[in-house]
Amino acid sequence: MLLQDKTAVIYGAGGAVGGAVARTFAREGAKLYLTGRHIDNVEAVVKEVEAAGGTAEAAQVDALDEKGVAEHLDTVIDKAGHVDISFNAIGLRNTTLQGTALVDLDVERFMAPISTHVQGNFITARLAGRRMTKQGSGVIMTVTSIPSRVAIPLMGGVAVAMAAEEALIRDLSAELAPHGVRALGIRPQGMPDSATMDDVFGVHGKAYGLSIEQFANLMAERTHPHRLTTLQEMANVAAFAASDHASAMTGTIVNLSLGTITD
Known about the structure:
Layout (H helix, E strand, L loop, with lengths): L6 E5 L4 H12 L3 E6 L2 H13 L3 E6 L5 H15 L4 E4 L18 H29 L2 E6 L14 H19 L4 E8 L6 H13 L4 H10 L9 H12 L9 E5 L7
Parallel strand pairs: 1-2, 1-4, 2-3, 4-5, 5-6, 6-7
């Protein structure tokens, strides 16, 4: 198993992305400490993991609460002795954050994804990085999306937030890699099996007079295989990237855009 004897902390574990990553990390042997603002959602993922034979604990932690994140990490280290993977999968509902032209968007809605995504990733990465550098190893990970690299209308502050997350990953790697700590992100194409994507596709589809299905098909046609990434594909890559087999991967964003972005 790729992650045997690894200890992983996942933020936003109750969401579609965090849940998929949690189930896959557990399948690969990691011991999980799952967190989120809504404890019921996190506990539901814990039950799934345990039903499949994995090990997981749930905690109500807001990734924007620096004190809460620090206390939880210290609890994890007290129990497990180390933290090997910090995976940030926090997100915001996009029903009001996208779909409005920038010139018509108010500052609060523009800043919401920047404040949440970037600040949350900075807090969790900084606190994990401090502890990982002391132990001389670890992996800090996050998920971004293709608007970080592709200009798409009506994205509001989301594209800016995704680009900032990727810059943060590169800078974290530059500072932490000499101490044995890797930092990397995953950039999937829109994943239609995520409820968030239903929201996003609905908002953008409406702007163009298209149904959710029609907009999803339009996005799929822009990829090389004419389909979209799945949650499980993203999670499988995340498990490999978090493993020791990916020890040369740091300071980079794994491109899962299915050819939408050609590196």
